[in-house]
Design a protein that fits this description.
The complex is a heterodimer of chains A (about 350) and B (about 350). In chain A, about 75% of the residues lie in helices and about 0% in strands. Chain A has 14 helices and no strands. The radius of gyration of chain A is 26 Å and the shape is globular. Chain A starts with 13 loop residues before the first helix and ends in a 5-residue tail after the last helix. Chain B is an alpha/beta fold. Chain B has two domains: about 190 residues, P-loop containing nucleotide triphosphate hydrolases (Rossmann fold, 3-Layer(aba) Sandwich), CATH 3.40.50; about 70 residues, no CATH class. In chain B, the strands form two sheets. In chain B, strands 6-7-8-3-9-10-12-11 form an eight-stranded mixed sheet, sandwiched between helices. A four-stranded antiparallel sheet of chain B has the order 2-1-4-5. In chain B, helix 8 links the parallel strand 7 and strand 8. In chain B, helix 4 crosses helix 5 and helix 7 packs parallel to helix 8. Chain B is globular, with a radius of gyration of 21 Å. Classes of the chains: A mainly alpha (about 350), B alpha/beta (about 350). Chains A and B meet through helix 9 and helix 10 of A and helix 3, helix 4, helix 6 and helix 7 of B.
Chain lengths: ~350, ~350
């Protein structure tokens, strides 16, 4: 948009080029991560298929019968060298086939991950966005009123909350709102008596169950946002252009917007990264509130040596982080003109 | 406040020759101004009891080494000394505004930009990096209650084109798309576009290359003349001051030690510090060894003597009285000098005249 003059000439859209580069790099990264996780997973001690096979033999089955029974149970037998398994895995991956779960025989890994993702996205997104908005807003005030009582109060509360581990906050929230003052359900994603869909009962139950995990996410990350925003605001306040704006007699509202918009820029990167990370790292909260999200799925799959499920969960987590990175970078190009034109300030 | 923007009609004829509104250039009378900075050692004066009269319509230069208090003095004219500094005493009377030290709140904010234009050092980023120059111009207009924003944009374009830039293109640009010289012209435009009549330039050519520096100085001189401004230019470059200014104030250790017409101050410096400064300038023709550096180092806030002359440690004319008594600025023949030695030579000269 050029409101002051029309600029002619065709140029290669830098955004398109940027996006293409990101996608190429993202694909390479995904390949690297899947390869590494494949090798690591196959080298974890404990082989569930072999375990099943041996159990059947111990029960008195003949080796042939045991092999057939195991193959029937899992749908396949992991035979061949590691390399053959790897190429098979990669070929399947290209067809978006993550294979069958070993711990829940007969279920596609994609199905399991799909249903778990649904339960992770809701509280993660809700909690993170809530704490981001709250933390950033309060952080601006903490930065501007650094030497006042309100600023001190905000900084101290931020530091305290920032220092408490997520699971401690989770347990406290659980204890307070389900035992001391039982107004929220203790666990699970939704009450079973409701029919899933857009009906009032189901949605209400959904919100009720999501409240405590969201609250925990929000409390656990709020402190970080306050502190990050406060220090960012303090930096921008010391910039020359703020003094220049003040000396030009710009109104308080304009000055506030100048400070806030410049200060929030670096926080968007942190936001995107933490959203990506939370996809895999919400294990404690999902455990505490018995929320069947990706974190819980990952822990369970590791416990049962479910290779396919482990690989699939790692893959989803990796992709979430890579997508978050690309999104952050593209978003930057929208909000920061220095990035947009590819120039350096 | 009472100013409107009738420039639209006159713009077509001659955009800048007659700046409308309050057409008279304001005079400035700084009296006994003391600015202190809070430090762990207590409040230390960066500007110590400075009195300085700036005649309407002149370009006055303030020269001095880093830390001499010249930028602090310049900021005081907008009552904009930044914490931990504060104006401890004295007054800054500006025609049409009164004592700006007493101004505050919205009154002060309106005075900045409308009556007082401030231009930063070119290397400092004085623009919001996220917004185009044009959008920041509109922010400026809205902050000062300008009704006709179209006329404001037109004035800004005229000013930019007057300074040799493509106005429309510059207004569409972000800071990072402009060169140092272009940024500086944008800074001058933003200082003048609301018809400020007192313009303060803080090291306007520092960190610019020689060609751009010459261009900016020419622009400052021409715009000053065309718009009938009172201009104050802070610089550490005596060459720049000699080229542009009518009057020159030399600062040392938070005092104005000498003040007078530029050519007289530079041609026949009275204060030993000014003499030392001029001797320290290397000449293009002649031996580099002829330039003599001033011995010693300038005082910092902490090492500034609390009694007596602030320059005595480096002074070749040091006398007993310099240890205890701060020399008062005395005006003699259009020149103001604060030095015991100069004072004494004047009085002996006068005695000789009578004899």
């Amino acid at each position: 948009m050029k409101p002051f003059a029309a600029r002619g000439g065709l140029r290669v859209n830098p955004m398109t080029r940027r996006l293409a580069g990101h996608l190429a790099r993202g694909l390479v990264m995904i390949w690297v991560v899947t390869t590494i996780s494949f090798v690591i997973i196959r080298n974890i001690p404990g082989n569930p298929v072999l375990g099943q096979y041996e159990t059947l033999i111990e029960r008195g089955m003949s080796p042939d019968a045991a092999e057939r029974a195991t193959a029937a149970l899992y749908g396949f037998l992991p035979t061949g060298t590691l390399w053959e398994q790897y190429t098979g895995y990669m070929k399947a991956l290209l067809h978006l086939d993550l294979g069958q779960s070993l711990s829940t025989p007969g279920t596609e890994v994609v199905t399991l991950i799909g249903s778990a993702t649904k339960w992770t996205v809701l509280p993660v997104l809700g909690g993170t966005l809530l704490s981001f908005v709250l933390g950033v807003t309060l952080g601006v005030y903490a930065g501007i009123k650094r030497s006042g009582k309100l600023g001190d109060l905000l900084s101290i509360s931020g530091s305290l909350l920032h220092g408490v581990p997520q699971y401690v906050i989770g347990l406290l929230v659980l204890a307070i709102f389900t035992t001391l003052w039982p107004i929220f359900p203790a666990g699970g994603p939704v009450d079973v008596e409701f029919v899933p869909g857009l009906n009032a009962g189901y949605l209400a139950s959904l919100v009720q169950h999501a409240t405590l995990p969201v609250l925990t996410y929000a409390l656990a990350s709020y402190g970080g946002w306050v502190l990050a925003m406060k220090s960012s605001v303090a930096t921008v306040l010391g910039d020359d252009f703020i003094l220049a704006a003040e000396l030009r007699g710009l109104s308080r509202g304009v000055l506030f917007r100048y400070v806030a918009r410049n200060a929030i820029l670096p926080l968007f990167t942190i936001l995107a990264l933490s959203l990506g990370m939370l996809f895999g790292g919400a294990i404690f909260i999902e455990r505490i509130f018995n929320y069947p999200g990706l974190g819980l799925l990952l822990v369970n799959s590791i416990g049962t040596r479910d290779y396919a499920l482990m690989g699939g969960t790692f893959l989803v987590t990796t992709m979430a982080i890579i997508v978050a990175n690309i999104a952050a970078d593209l978003f930057y190009a929208v909000i920061d003109p220095r990035v947009r034109t590819g120039g350096a300030a | 406040m009472t100013t409107n923007f009738p420039q639209a009609e006159s713009a077509a004829v001659s955009p800048l020759v007659a700046a409308p509104g309050h057409a008279t250039a304001p005079g400035v009378r700084v009296k006994d101004l003391t600015v202190v900075y809070r430090t762990p050692l207590g409040e230390l004066p960066a500007v110590g009891g400075v009195s300085l009269t700036i005649e309407p319509g002149t370009i006055t230069g303030i020269v001095g080494e880093s830390g001499s208090g010249k930028s602090t003095l310049a900021l005081s004219l907008l009552n904009a000394v930044q914490p931990p500094g504060r104006i401890k005493g004295g007054s800054v009377e500006i025609d049409g505004l009164g004592d700006v030290v007493k101004l505050g709140g919205d009154e002060l904010r309106q005075a900045r930009g409308r009556h007082l234009g401030y231009v930063f050092q070119a290397a400092q980023n004085s623009l919001n990096p996220l917004k185009t120059v044009g959008k920041q111009l509109l922010d400026l207009g809205r902050s000062h209650g300008v009704d006709d924003l179209r006329a404001l944009v037109r004035d800004a374009k005229d000013l930019l084109e007057r300074m040799g830039l493509d106005g429309a293109r510059v207004l569409d640009s972000h800071q990072h798309e402009l060169s140092g010289g272009m940024r500086q012209r944008v800074g001058i435009m933003l200082a003048l576009v609301l018809n400020a009549q007192l313009v303060i330039l803080d090291e306007p050519t520092t960190a610019l290359d020689m060609i751009t520096q010459a261009t900016i100085l020419r622009i400052v001189r021409e715009v000053h003349k065309e718009r009938g401004l009172t201009t104050l230019m802070v610089t550490h470059d005596i060459g720049v001051a000699a080229e542009v200014t009518d009057r020159l104030a030399v600062m040392y250790g938070g005092r104005v030690v000498e003040h007078g017409p530029t050519m007289e101050v530079l041609g026949a410096p009275s204060h030993p510090y000014t003499r030392g400064l001029i001797r320290a300038i290397p000449r293009l023709s002649g031996d580099i060894a002829e330039a003599q550096a001033l011995p010693g180092r300038p005082p910092t806030l902490g090492t500034l003597p609390t009694a007596g002359c602030v320059f005595r440690e480096r002074c070749p004319l040091r006398m007993d009285i310099c240890e205890t008594v701060d020399p008062r600025p005395l005006t003699h023949d259009r020149r103001t000098v604060a030095c015991h030695a100069v004072e004494r030579s004047h009085s002996t000269a006068e005695q000789e005249e009578y004899a």
